[in-house]
Amino acid sequence: MAELSIAEIVRKVRKVKIVANRSASDLLAGQYRSVFRGQGIEFDEVREYQPGDEIRSIDWNVTARTGTPFIKRYIEEREMTVMILLDVSASGIFGSANQSKLDVMIELIAVLMFSALKNGDKVGLMLFVGEVTRYFPPRKGKSNVLRLIREMLSVEPKAERANVPAVLQFLSRVQKRKAVVFVVSDFQDVQSFQPFALSRMRHDVVAMTIADPREQVIPNVGFVTLRDAETGELIEVDSAHSAFRNWFQQESGRRRSELTAGLRRVGVDQLEIDTHQSYASNLHRFFESRERRSRSR
Fold first, then answer.
1. Cβ-contact 89, 157 below 8 angstroms
2. Do 60 and 132 lie in a common domain?
């Protein structure tokens, strides 16, 4: 990926801003606010029980010690913190349609950032590969969102494996209060889901997984040379063989199934995005699913 000029970055920022702002306005028609707003509550005080108080709020430990009924009071957090963890490894450069995986990820992240902006929430960003390469603490305001979009668009992807556990460990050190955390990656190499489980104990974690159809099904085009963008490894294959194409498709499906099953096992929501499809419908379905779950609790 060639380094972009300042003029190109400005042009891309404007384009992403227009698309994302429009989509965020649609998204805010009840969905973003109802799914994330008001989910976070923090402890306020313990006080004596008064007639009319909710019995389920009784603090039985304090009540047992004092012999007098006490309740716990909570207040809704006035603002929310949204943290974006973006994988900027070189595999994101790939794309067999009009946009690369990284282009789609940035555009979708911008939608979420503008949704947070319109809702008065703080937004922070971490760019990572083998480790966190850039960290921008959560802040409020339009200038902050535009700066983060500019930083994402000007990033130079690196040819190394993305280390999701490392970025989640970094998150635990710098973000002590609860946040909505979007981990945005193609998740090419997930060795363990335990870091997700640990992060979920404090934060609302969502895995946004991006994929391109050509990573799942290889066409019959004869001999082709495949290159691993993260390691540089080259391999020549004959795609004319149906056995190879079948193996490729099955192996890709196995990895995707293992990723989905692993995230579900640790209770992390997954938002799947395809470079050949509109992400808007996927985003709406994802939010509707979360809304239904929250209403059934």
1. yes
2. no
Q: Are residues 171 and 265 in the same domain?
A: yes
Query: Can you tell me the distance from the alpha carbon of 129 to that of 162, in angstroms, rounded to the nearest whole number?
Result: 4
**Residue 70 to residue 47: CA distance in whole angstroms:** 5
Q: How far apart are the first and last CA of the chain?
A: 46
* 208 and 243 fall within a common domain: yes
98 and 194 inside one domain: yes
**CA dist., res. 67 & res. 82, Å (int):** 42
Rounded to whole angstroms, the Cα distance separating 294 from 33 reads 13
Provide the pLDDT confidence category of residue 293 given band limits of 50, 70 and 90: confident
Place of tokens 């603002």: 79
Residues 6+ apart with CB under 8 A from 206: 180, 181, 182, 183, 268, 269, 270, 271
268: β partners: none
Domain membership flag for residue 57: yes
Range(s) of the domain holding residue 115: 6-36+79-296
1: in domain? no
Domain count, the chain: 2
Contacts of 198 (CB under 8 A, 6+ apart): 168, 172
pLDDT in tens, 250-267: 888 888 899 999 999 999
Surface-to-core class of residue 78, CB atoms within 10 Å of its CB (0-12 exposed, 13-18 middle, 19+ buried): exposed
Q: Say what the pTM is.
A: 0.77
**In this predicted model, what pLDDT tens digit does every residue of 84-138 receive, in sequence order?**
999 999 888 876 777 889 999 998 999 899 888 888 899 999 999 999 999 999 9
Residues 50 and 128 in one domain: no
- Nearest-angstrom CA–CA distance, 100 and 194: 29
For residue 228, give Cα distances in angstroms to 91, 232, 235, 236.
8, 5, 9, 12
